[in-house]
Write a structure and sequence with these properties.
mainly alpha; 6 helices; 2 strands; about 55% helix; about 10% strand; globular
Length: about 200
């Protein structure tokens, strides 16, 4: 009787896949990071970079365990939204966000319409940029790291700008006050500039 009661292993739901668990941790790290992005740029940079590295780890787990991933592209989208609010006018950051979302959506939709399993399958693509990006992991990694570093660099520049109040993400400042020092001969002149 005991031999007949052997349990079959239960199949995990997509929400319990290893890449998604890593993704949930990344989302939590990003929530904390973006909540303090203006008040603590160093901790933000650390949390964001660790989350960015988690993107590579969950991608590896996706391929290794043949599992799907729900959370991805969130970090970059949040970073671009924050940058659009901190650096006025934020049109450049918002255009990059629109390009990121639209290009990935179009690539995924078009590959699924053509019957392919993955949007990274570009072997028969006539677009040289898609072949370079998805076909060469080193080039893709370079592009992703460069995007991450550019965003972190822009956040690091906040240290050089004195913000009127050091708010959380919920109250991102509309204007910043930058204090500049001009030395003419023996005189020093301090000027406060309000940048909106």
């Amino acid at each position: 009787m005991a031999d007949k009661m052997v349990r079959k292993p239960q199949k995990l739901t997509v929400y319990h896949y290893i890449p998604n668990i890593i993704g949930y941790i990344r989302v939590l790290m990003n929530c904390v990071a973006f909540a303090i992005c203006v008040s603590n740029e160093r901790l933000f940079s650390l949390l964001y970079f660790v989350s960015f590295e988690g993107d590579g780890i969950d991608g590896w787990c996706t391929r290794k365990f043949n599992q799907d991933m729900v959370t991805d592209r969130i970090s970059t989208a949040c970073l671009l939204v924050v940058l659009s609010q901190v650096y006025r006018p934020g049109l450049t950051s918002l255009l990059l966000l629109a390009l990121d979302i639209a290009s990935h959506w179009l690539q995924m939709y078009s590959t699924f319409l053509s019957g392919k399993v993955s949007h990274k399958d570009v072997k028969d693509s006539t677009n040289w940029l898609l072949r370079a990006y998805y076909g060469n992991r080193m080039f893709m990694a370079f592009c992703c790291v460069a995007c991450c570093m550019l965003g972190l660099r822009r956040i690091a520049e906040l240290r050089n700008v004195k913000v009127q109040s050091r708010p959380s993400l919920l109250k991102i400042p509309r204007c910043r006050v930058r204090e500049t020092r001009t030395v003419i001969g023996a005189q020093q002149k301090f000027v406060k500039l309000e940048i909106c």
